[in-house]
Predict the 3D structure of the following.
Amino acid sequence: MRLFSSLGLASLPTIVSGFSASSPTSYETITGSKSSPLEGISGKKSLVVLLPQLGEFDSSEYCEHLVATSDALAKNDIVLRVIGIGDADAASEFCRFTHLSPDVLSVEPDGALHQELDLYAGPGFAVPEFVSDDVLRFLLDTLPGGAPGENSRLRPVGTSWLNYLAMCAGIGAKGTLQEIIRGYFGDYSAPERFRDDDVVEAGFITIGPGVGPVKMGPLSYNQWFADEKGYQRPVELATVRLKNMVEVLTKWDQYVSNPLAIAQRGATYLFDEEGNELYSYKTPGVLTYSNTMSRPLSFLSPYIGDDAALNPLGLPDTGKGELVKGRGVLKPAGKAMGLLGFLFKIENKLQAKLFGADDADFAAARREIRDEISSKKVVIYTYGLSPFSTEATAVLDEIGADYARIELGLEWFLLGKEQSVKRAELLALTGQSSLPHVFIDGKHVGGVFTGAPDGSSPGLAGLKESGELKAMLLV
């Protein structure tokens, strides 16, 4: 496929180019290809990105990656050209928000180039005839931008919104639902996406700095995954998208100049020095601007190297697709179990008493525990059927720790007298009512997800995330 013949720029009715962010009115409407966005790239590789509306969430998300890799593209003699649907006002806001250079951005008001390239524009629905104009106008008034003033545009705009909203719901939009889920549940195969100093404000909700702190009016809390590093954490990408959504929705009229093109999707093309296609991808839905969304620019690896292509934002990246021990769904469950600690403390002591334990039994258990925790650098007390105990030993195994495992029994309700007394003494010694108990150099560091009650340690998983666990084992 040849570059100029395939993109058909000479046949486009209108291309807006030469936009300058410093003087937004100094753009020029060009007929034909006399001043096309692809001028000046002859003899060089070129990356041509067709965005949907500049006010589309995909556009700012994609361009954050493109901006971050611009130096690597230039270093490898690859010219970047970005063409989006919009006008000069939209381009000015977009360049300000994304930091995309105005020199590489061209805007096209109607999506004619996208249509000529037969890019996707939704499942092809139309507003049913039985929906009256009054009802349609009422519905459109509930959406950003409202209903158009001209009756002649009412149904075309309604049709565009219908197709876009259908894609948002995953209808006729390959990969969209998976991408929405990935944004909320995280991705172990992707690098971090939200910087430690990033803050998002949406009404009464404030998220940040970083992925941990959340404030909702008077309520404040810390996300359970806040201490985890090196991969795309749960809701992290959704938070980035919330930031982009707030930007667009609060400036809708500046960003979206043509509601008739709301459903229009984009594409990415990479060409060699002679204009031959090296790569192409046409967006099939919403939030699917790459066929490798975990690392959207991976197709550039052969041309700019893995570091720039696979992690252009340069954020921590240690996941590599592996479920690291001490993470996952057990973590919030483990932290939630801490809320029941007061009940377990009552039950803990009562269970030992019901077996007829006396002071001598407790004293013997106390001596045994002291001997055990001093017998090896790392000692862990577990239940045989507890998933938390299994996860704790898996964390230790993952980093190659040498430890002694002491199993009290299968579960707390299956313990006999001796084990129940020992469990009660572990509570008295540490203040923690649940297992596992982890000791390093005779000091209690908590469980797997719960920290030491005195606040001296975040627990085994927290120590591992911070790198302290390895340091403690080396001493």
Summary: The longest strand covers residues 45-53. The longest helix spans residues 154-168. The chain is about 35% helix and 15% strand.
